[in-house]
Amino acid sequence: MNGAEESGVVGQTIAEFLNQRSAPIENIVVEQNGTIVHRADFDTTKISENDKLELISFVGGG
User: Fold this and answer.
1) Distance from first CA to last CA of the chain, Å, rounded?
2) pLDDT-derived band at 43, boundaries 50, 70, 90
3) 32 with 45: CB under 8 angstroms?
4) Going by C-beta distance under 8 Å and a sequence separation of 6 or more, which residues neighbour residue 39?
5) CB of 48 within 8 A of CB of 10?
6) In this structure, is residue 21 part of a structural domain?
7) Which residues does residue 31 pair with via DSSP β-bridges, in sequence order?
8) Looking at the domain assignment, is residue 7 inside a domain?
9) Domain of life of the organism in this record (predicted)?
10) Distances (CA, A) of 43 to 2, 18, 22, 27, 58
11) Residue 22 belongs to what domain range?
């Protein structure tokens, strides 16, 4: 998290990665190596070695 490298994620799908972290999939945008991954592709997009993931979550408030 926050720029930290994580091990054991190569071969996981984006969905698996997010589920393991209890991430709010409906409120998150995932960028993989500078490209936004569409939510419909979370179940099929796999994490490869040296990938850089950025997770951006949206929080409502007022």
Assistant:
1) 26
2) very high
3) yes
4) 25
5) yes
6) yes
7) 36, 54
8) no
9) Bacteria
10) 23, 10, 15, 16, 21
11) 14-57
Tell whether the model's pLDDT for residue 24 goes beyond 90: no
- pLDDT tens digit sequence for 50-62: 999 999 987 777 6
Residue 41 lies in a domain: yes
Residues in CB range of 44: below 8 A, 6 or more apart: 13
Mean pLDDT, the chain, rounded, equals 90
Domain count across the chain: 1
Confidence class of residue 14 from pLDDT cuts 50, 70 and 90? very high
Long-range contacts of 23-27 (CB under 8 A, 24+ apart): 23/55, 23/57, 24/57, 27/57, 27/58, 27/59
